[in-house]
Structure formats: C-alpha cells, structure tokens
Design a protein that fits this description.
By secondary structure, the protein is mostly helical. The protein is 63% helix and 2% strand. The chain has a two-stranded antiparallel sheet. The longest helix has 29 residues, at 122-150.
Length: 229
C-alpha cells in the first residue's frame, strides 16, 4: 500500500498549485486605481486564486467530514468547510468592489484533485486528503506572504490577512491528523511546475450561471473580517 500511495500522490502533487507560478511571475502593472489603492495584475490573480482554492477545498472538506475514518480527519474537514466558506464570502465581496470576475469552477488540476479524493475511501482517503491539502495550503502561504508584502490595495491586503489565518488553521488541523506524508509535501514544494497554463487556470464563469456560494453549516462560527466587508 505504501508504494502505491507514494506513486498516486507523487503524480497528483507533482505540478505546482494554481496561482503560485502565475502570481509570482505576474508583472506589477497597475490595471485599475480604485479608492482602496492601486490594483495590480498580481493582486487580481490572487483574488481569483483564493476563490478557485475554495471551490475545490470546500467539497473536499465535506468529503472529509462525511467519510473520514478518524475524528481528527472529520474535524479537519469541518475546519475546511468553515474556513473556506468564510474566506470565499470575503473574496466575493472584494471582487465585487474591485470589479474582478471570479470563476465558478476550480481549475482542471484542482478538479482532478477532487476526483481523486472522491474515488478514495477508508484510510487511503484520510492519508491522501491530509497530504494533498497540507502540500497545497503550505505552498499557498508563500503566495499570500508575497501579495501581503507588496500590494498597495487595502482590500487585497485584508483578504491576504484572512487567507493567511485560514491557511495556518488548516495546516494545524491537517497536521494533527498524524497522517501527513511530509516526504510528498517536500516534493510538492520543491518541484517546478510543468502543467500547461490552461490546466492551472479556472475556467471563466458562464454568463447565465448563478454565482456559486460556499455555504457554511448552520452551527458555524466563522471568523469576522470587518476590514474586508
């Protein structure tokens, strides 16, 4: 099982996650000058990335809370659902104020992540989920830090703050499962991306399709984000 798991996650995790390469290489060209500060291409790409990440991590959280075989995995799933729903709400508010078009579906790569975990079951699901999310959320921290340090837009800065808090919470609960394969995480974080751009980019929304809303559970108590609202 160990060899098969290593092969599966190795191929699954090999490319970099959406946005890491795109944001880091995006020129600091100002594309708009709203009252909240100049908006660059990197700022816009970051807002889209936050939305796209939520569109795949939210259903994975639902899977984990439903079919995780340990309490720690189910708790991690609940944190994914709550955190991503709250962050997505802030992201959609920011996008509306900054006139940024958001996707309604994650990237093809991220859709592949969801499909792989949907097909998993038992301990295989637990381990794959914990390792995959630990790798992608861990890698996203560098993007968040870069945007937080360089943006001149106050709304993007506040969104980066909330994204940082959310990612750190998710890293903590994933590590508490005791199932993270840190060798695979290291591979993910040190391997250059190889997928074509179209596989790492979420498709544009269909004009007639309602905006997808990630709804928190009724008993959820998401962290407030007044500066983003």
């Amino acid at each position: 099982m160990g060899g098969a798991l290593s092969l599966t996650l190795g191929s699954l995790l090999y490319p970099a996650v959406l946005g890491v390469q795109k944001v880091d290489s995006a020129p600091e060209r100002v594309i708009a000058t709203p009252p909240t500060g100049p908006l660059t291409e990197a700022d816009r790409d970051f807002v889209v990335e936050v939305r796209s990440a939520g569109l795949w991590e939210y259903p994975v959280g639902q899977m984990a809370s439903r079919k995780g075989t340990t309490k720690a995995v189910r708790i991690a799933g609940e944190h994914l659902i709550d955190g991503r729903a709250s962050l997505d709400a802030a992201c959609r508010r920011v996008a509306q104020r900054l006139n940024i078009t958001l996707p309604n579906r994650p990237s093809p790569q991220q859709q592949g992540f969801v499909a792989t975990l949907k097909a998993d079951s038992g301990k295989r699901f637990d381990t794959d989920m914990a390792t995959l999310l630990r790798a992608t959320d861990g890698q996203a921290l560098s993007t968040i830090a870069s945007v937080r340090a360089t943006t001149r837009n106050s709304l993007v800065r506040a969104l980066a703050d909330q994204a940082n808090d959310t990612d750190l919470d998710h890293l903590a609960v994933l590590e508490k499962t005791g199932l993270v394969d840190f060798d695979q995480v290291l591979v993910q974080e040190t391997t250059a991306p190889t997928l074509p751009a179209q596989d790492m980019t979420p498709p544009p929304p269909v004009a007639t399709q309602p905006e997808v809303v990630l709804t928190p559970p009724a008993n959820s108590t998401p962290s407030p984000s007044p500066s983003v609202g």
